[in-house]
């Protein structure tokens, strides 16, 4: 299935490192919250303020993109589990088992999975009124498809954004050190930069795992629809 080899198109910003920086102010210090225990437990990326406008913007962009991808990943897992639980499937991560159980439960309906590009849909045809639980399942599969597509669509862009930041580590340290702040503030900003880079490396390692699972699910949907990936 050719669609799984590349990602849906998305706008990408040209990575240009700007040298402008502004002194650390009280309002700027409060503009970005520090990472908290809740974020660490959920795996969210909270970008910390580093005192250079361009760098703050870039780290925030990476954090926002990664967090959205993570949310879509959680939605993908939850929607598949919802369908699996509804039909008492042996495992909660198999679209194949889910479709088999759905067909067995609603044998009077003609049920199939249709794939178009990165989208897959549960098709239901019935002479009688479609049961409520089957309507819910159809909606769940649509939501599952949207989440899967969203994970894949940002994967390449996110990796490029992260790679650019990691390659500029020395330059970023220099920019933060050049800000018009006292020694204590500079130390705090450099610590924030170090933490942001640590989080960026974690996102770089985690994001491909999300992409792989989403790709596997899309390939599974393709097989179930009769398409050879």
UniProtKB/TrEMBL annotation:
<protein>
    <submittedName>
        <fullName>Uncharacterized protein</fullName>
    </submittedName>
</protein>
<feature type="coiled-coil region">
    <location>
        <begin position="176"/>
        <end position="206"/>
    </location>
</feature>
<keyword id="KW-0175">Coiled coil</keyword>
<feature type="region of interest" description="Disordered">
    <location>
        <begin position="1"/>
        <end position="45"/>
    </location>
</feature>
């Amino acid at each position: 299935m050719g669609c799984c080899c590349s990602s849906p198109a998305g706008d990408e910003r040209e990575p240009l490192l700007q040298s402008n920086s502004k002194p650390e102010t009280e309002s700027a210090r409060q503009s970005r919250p520090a990472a908290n225990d809740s974020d660490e437990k959920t795996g969210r990326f909270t970008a910390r303020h580093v005192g250079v406008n361009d760098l703050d913007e870039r780290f925030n962009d990476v954090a926002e993109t990664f967090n959205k991808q993570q949310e879509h990943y959680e939605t993908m897992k939850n929607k598949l589990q919802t369908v699996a639980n509804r039909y008492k499937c042996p495992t909660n991560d198999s679209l194949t088992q889910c479709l088999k159980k759905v067909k067995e439960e609603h044998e009077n309906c003609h049920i199939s999975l249709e794939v178009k590009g990165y989208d897959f849909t549960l098709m239901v045809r019935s002479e009688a009124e479609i049961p409520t639980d089957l309507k819910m399942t159809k909606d769940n599969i649509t939501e599952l498809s949207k989440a899967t597509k969203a994970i894949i669509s940002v994967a390449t862009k996110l990796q490029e954004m992260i790679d650019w930041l990691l390659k500029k580590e020395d330059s970023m340290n220099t920019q933060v050190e050049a800000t018009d702040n006292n020694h204590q503030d500079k130390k705090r900003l450099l610590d924030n930069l170090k933490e942001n880079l640590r989080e960026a490396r974690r996102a770089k390692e985690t994001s491909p795992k999300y992409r792989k699972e989403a790709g596997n699910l899309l390939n599974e949907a393709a097989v179930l629809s009769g398409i050879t990936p």
